[in-house]
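Researcher: Please generate the 3D structure of the following complex. Treat every line as part of one assembly.
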Amino acid sequence: MEVLERKENDVMILTLKGRLDSNTSDEFGERLLNLIKNGENRLVLDLGDVDYISSAGLRVFIRCVKELKQTQGQLCLCSMKDYIREVFDLSGIASLLVIQPSLDDTLRSI
Amino acid sequence: MSENSVSFEVKADLAELERLREIICSFGRDHDLPDKIVFVLNLVLDELITNSIKYGHLEAGNHLISVHIAYAPEAVTIEVEDDGCPFNPLTATRPDIHCPIEERGIGGLGLHLVRSLMDEMDYERFKDKNIVRIRKKLIESGSAACNR
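Model: Done. Output below.
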């Protein structure tokens, strides 16, 4: 999986491309948690080019939301495909964070 | 093996998930399945195989997990068989997906997704093997299967 990182104002934006599964989630989770530990507490993840996510990928988001809760931080996801959005809904994770249709919507609201 | 079905074995190794993806994509192309169905089939097989490896204690030996996928115009049926420890996914603890984030656990999600995304699921322990059978309808009345 490819991850591009950029910062706009105080917001860390990560653009993901590929698959979030058992083989890629640990590394990505570590990267995300490290960003949070280093003080980033407004994070936006653009999932427009993520075409697969399993429970291993979903667990990364639960861990990050837990971590951000300590620092009053915010995690927003955007641009996800309908079938990816469905697993966030089914797993109850959609109610734990903000999901927006597009990156522009997210940057306006965060 | 008919052209409407595919059977294969995967090693008890998470690196096999990439080969699984290729097989499912090819199956999807052969039967002109929508992207969403291909995703769901890949996801449920990923979760079942990952569970077999993690909870069936298959890591230690040269175990193989057998998979059979059959297409019919009304549904896709899948059978997954492993020789790991007895593990009934139907009686596995269900995660509380509505609790506050502070109390939210991180386990049990995979099987929860399998149960939620499939229309039927059953389990049998037969001749020291775990056999899980699942079925996904291709013709839905509304989207009831996904709203449970």
